[in-house]
Automatic annotation (TrEMBL):
<keyword id="KW-0456">Lyase</keyword>
<dbReference type="Pfam" id="PF01212">
    <property type="entry name" value="Beta_elim_lyase"/>
</dbReference>
<dbReference type="InterPro" id="IPR001597">
    <property type="entry name" value="ArAA_b-elim_lyase/Thr_aldolase"/>
</dbReference>
<dbReference type="InterPro" id="IPR015421">
    <property type="entry name" value="PyrdxlP-dep_Trfase_major"/>
</dbReference>
<dbReference type="InterPro" id="IPR015422">
    <property type="entry name" value="PyrdxlP-dep_Trfase_small"/>
</dbReference>
<comment type="similarity">
    <text>Belongs to the beta-eliminating lyase family.</text>
</comment>
<dbReference type="InterPro" id="IPR015424">
    <property type="entry name" value="PyrdxlP-dep_Trfase"/>
</dbReference>
<dbReference type="InterPro" id="IPR011166">
    <property type="entry name" value="Beta-eliminating_lyase"/>
</dbReference>
<protein>
    <submittedName>
        <fullName>Tryptophanase</fullName>
    </submittedName>
</protein>
<feature type="domain" description="Aromatic amino acid beta-eliminating lyase/threonine aldolase">
    <location>
        <begin position="55"/>
        <end position="427"/>
    </location>
</feature>
<keyword id="KW-0663">Pyridoxal phosphate</keyword>
Length: 482
């Protein structure tokens, strides 16, 4: 997209859409927010949106739809089998992702369930650039293990490396040599590696991975949930692809993979998901699992209205004015925080801004969950709901000991086309205040810990009365202000 330049020199992103439907938000006083976060067990997942001002929990299923998407939902073909809506989706998948065979699933993790059940056997190893929470859970559930093969620079949080999501090809070779081809049913590449700050991989890296996959005859699986933005950043950051359209870049990426799956809650700004391939043999291995876990093969547990919106949304992914909106707002947010000296993952990635909680709160030991504590503290002083991406989002080992996460991040998601620039400025303002008062933030401990995906419903409590003290300081500095 040709960036619009401002005459007065301000460097801000410009919205290339207008708002036609709005929804009221609730900015409740800090006294209510303190009660709310206590009721939620200091876990932002458990907050009610009536207590949330800006919902930056996730970009999953929270993106704004276009007028054309909403319009398409009225034309949906309600049929258990053979729905015309599904045929439209198949056509969109073929046109945009270049894959003929499509299996619909109710969301991204459902695709992971089907793929892992179909291809993983006990003792298998899945090399990946980096794991995502749900794929890790499904790999483990099927008796497999993940091996993360990021480049060493990927976990340098403050960096200017344009492609921190790249897989280290030497590590991939070594991993295959070590475990043997028979133990590796597929290599998994995740577009815009979610958990390390929405960092993309380059096209040349994906080509290198493909070469290794071909050399050993191993299948390559692409998690395309954040594909559009990864493609956009390839166009912005990789010299050879500067002149190419989104359509070309996306087709090239998906063309390198044998199997592509996605969460439509992100890709296409709708709801649902899909698995697609041009290989009939792979399709055949998964087909029977769809009616078992998802629904009939022409709806897969998704409403036909959402299937219509998905088809339109997939095509809109090719529109640079649409796909660039979220990354350009994130760039503004990240660069503003960086200028204020607030520790944030750089370069700006996709899906949100990621605050480095270990640098923000170096006084909180990792066993007291600095990212979880920062998420709770930030909600308390702003009404903004972010998400912990650190040790709480990790798992315990066989002995029940914590596996401390590589990074402790507060993720502030920027759903596509949802927030205005003044709302983003409010985020920056409140984070700046919290950074000034960071010494007041304390740790958390678990009081209720579910055995699987504990971060969703787990309950915690503060290790001292730090939330009350933080509230008193807020009132002192802001007076009666919300
Ligand atoms: C969100 C996400 C998923 C899971 O998708 P859901 O629709 O939330 O189940 C899988 N992979 C990546 C990279 C994601 O960002």
């Amino acid at each position: 997209m040709s960036q619009v330049k401002f005459y007065l020199g301000e460097d801000i992103p410009l919205e290339l859409h207008k708002v036609r439907v709005v929804q009221k938000l609730h900015l409740v006083p800090i006294e209510r927010r303190l009660d709310a976060i206590k009721e939620a067990g200091f876990n932002t997942f458990r907050l009610s949106t009536l207590d949330v001002y800006l919902d930056m929990l996730t970009d999953s299923g929270t993106n704004a739809m276009s007028d054309n998407q909403v319009a398409s939902m009225l034309q949906a073909d309600d049929a258990y089998a053979g729905s015309q809506s599904f045929i439209k989706l198949q056509k969109a998948v073929e046109d945009v992702l270049g894959k003929k065979y499509l299996l619909p699933v109710h969301q991204g993790r459902a695709a992971e369930n089907v793929i892992c059940r179909a291809f993983i056997k006990k003792g298998d190893i899945i090399p990946t650039n980096y794991h995502f929470t749900t794929v890790l859970a499904h790999v483990l559930e099927n008796g497999g293990k993940i091996e993360e093969l990021l480049h060493d620079h990927a976990l340098v949080l403050h960096s200017d490396h344009p492609f921190k999501g790249n897989m280290d090809i030497e590590k991939l070779e070594a991993c295959i040599q070590k475990h043997g081809v028979d133990k590796i049913p597929f290599i998994r590449m995740e577009a815009s590696t979610n958990l390390i700050g929405g960092q993309p991989f380059s096209m040349s890296n994906l080509m290198d991975v493909r070469r290794v996959a071909d050399k050993y005859g191993i299948m390559l699986v692409l998690d395309a949930s954040l594909l559009g933005e990864n493609a956009y950043l390839i166009q912005q950051r990789e010299e050879q692809w500067k002149e190419n359209s989104m359509a070309d870049i996306i087709k090239m990426m998906t063309g390198l993979a044998d199997l592509v799956y996605f969460s439509a809650r992100k890709l296409s700004s709708s709801r649902g998901g899909g698995i697609c391939t041009n290989r009939k043999d792979l399709y055949g291995k998964m087909e029977a699992l769809i009616p078992l876990f998802e629904g009939f093969l022409t709806y897969g547990g998704i409403s036909v209205r959402e299937i219509e919106a998905m088809a339109v949304g997939l095509r809109e992914t090719l529109d640079e004015t649409m796909i660039s909106q979220s990354p350009s707002f994130i760039k503004y947010l990240v660069e503003s925080l960086d200028k204020l000296g607030i520790p944030v993952v750089t370069p700006p990635g996709v899906l949100g801004a990621h605050v480095d909680a270990m640098a923000f709160c170096p006084h909180i030991p990792q066993t007291e969950y600095p990212a979880g504590a920062l998420a709770a503290a930030f909600y308390l002083i702003s009404g903004i709901r972010g998400m912990e991406r650190g040790t709480i989002s990790s798992v315990r080992d066989e002995n029940g000991d914590e596996i401390l996460a590589d990074v402790e991040l507060l993720r502030l998601a920027v759903p596509r086309r949802v927030f205005t620039l003044s709302q983003v400025k409010y985020v920056i303002d409140r984070l700046a205040w919290l950074y000034e008062n960071r010494d007041m933030i304390g740790g958390l401990k678990f009081v209720y810990e579910p055995p699987v995906l504990r971060f969703f419903m787990g309950g915690l409590e503060p290790t001292s009365d730090w939330p009350e003290k933080l509230m008193i300081k807020f009132r002192k500095d802001f007076g009666e202000s919300l």
